[in-house]
Amino acid sequence: MPDETLSPAPAASVAEAARASLADVDGVPGAAKHDPILVVDNVVRRFGGMTAVDVDHLEVQRGVITALIGPNGAGKTTFFNLITGFDKPSSAPRLIGGPSSDKAAKWRFDGRSLGSTGAAKVAKQGMVRTFQLTKALSRMTVMDNMLLGARDQPGENIFASVVKPLWSGREREITAKAEELLRRFKLYEKKDDLAGSLSGGQKKLLEMARALMSDPKMIMLDEPMAGVNPALTQSLLGHIQSLRDEGMTVLFVEHDMHMVRHISDWVVVMAEGRVVAEGPPGTVMQDQAVIDAYLGAHHNTDLGDDSLLSDEVAETLAAEIAEEDKKLEEEEKR
Questions:
Q1: pLDDT by residue (tens digit) across 84-93?
Q2: pLDDT at position 290, please?
Q3: What pLDDT shows up at residue 309?
Q4: How far apart are CA 119 and CA 116, in angstroms?
Q5: Distances 124 to 129, 188, 211, 212 between C-alpha atoms, Å
Q6: CA angle 76-77-82, nearest 5°?
Q7: Average pLDDT of the chain?
């Protein structure tokens, strides 16, 4: 009798199905998704009299790339800090003087409530993030930075650490995984170099690779292109897309509208702390509310139009690319 056990669908087909499911989603703020991995309700953060974040409802679809965009001061990074446990919302439930239960902040990740969970436990649940400013430990080697990102290291236990057989096998597994990721991100030749010697783009790659050491379900990237030489931009884009194609969920903050249009499956727009629009990238970038948020009175402007780049900016980018190409050629000769 033939085995009728169904094998799991390839990650690529799962990712394609996730993207296809967005076609039926209404392009309105707070739109319900077919299979959300993250659901956020009533998240408010105030600093004195200023409200930095005021998100009534937001869902992030599993298995796709979602961009979180908005002008400076829109509250994007603060929102990241809140849902990853690095900050606490002003609307958090409290025993005395807090908001009513229906107005209290709450959010679920992969079906589990994370509303009062610290950053370390959030990461253990499978939601990890990177930062605008890279957090590589400059005086440690690239490899040591990678090893720090791994989970379940028995050698960290003070008692197990004195009995090598208890941790040596796991350490070999972790080292092999780190080497594999460094090869994938083209950093293997730098593994014994100090992390502080890497370029800005290489540090971004290292931070992304280190985040993957914990096998996350969703990775949150805060301005992954900030400070990156244009010569490395395409490499970073490719890595982000490959994460989605492997079945991972990606949520990223970015100001580069050309990147957003190129790789995003869905776009969420924040302005003055609130979600003002969401939908497919091509539609969102022509939304009047989005254009107003970015450009004020400059109407009828496509935010993804390359012609918006001035000649001066274009020349600067070309010069930076040429300089990086020259450095890469010199390294290859050595």
A1: 999 999 998 8
A2: 82
A3: 42
A4: 10
A5: 12, 26, 11, 12
A6: 100
A7: 82
Tell me which amino acid residue 75 is.
Answer: G
Residue found under tokens 């980018």: 317
- Name the burial class of residue 268, with classes exposed (0-12), middle (13-18) and buried (19+) by CB atoms within 10 angstroms of its CB: buried
Could you tell me the strand order of the sheet in which 112-113 lies? Answer: 50-61, 36-47, 106-109, 112-113
Q: Encoding tokens for residue 322?
A: 């040429």
Domains delineated in the chain: 11-136+199-333 (3.40.50.300), 138-197 (no CATH)
pTM for this model (two decimals): 0.79
* Residue 149 in tokens: 């990102």
**Alpha-carbon distance 68 to 84, whole Å?**
15
Instruction: Give me the amino acid identity at 246.
Output: E
In degrees, rounded to 5, the angle at the alpha carbon of residue 296 between the alpha carbons of residues 295 and 298 is 65
Closest alpha carbon to 59 in 33, 77, 93, 84 = 33
Amino acid at 198: L
CA nearest neighbour of 116 among 130, 98, 143: 98
3-state helix, strand and coil shares in percent for the chain, rounded to the nearest 5: 40, 20, 40
Q: How many Cα atoms occupy the beta-carbon half-sphere of 258 within 13 Å?
A: 9
| Residue 61, strand partner residues | 36
Q: What are 201-260's pLDDT values in tens digits?
A: 888 889 889 999 988 999 999 988 877 777 777 778 888 899 999 899 999 998 888 888
Q: Which amino acid, 293?
A: A
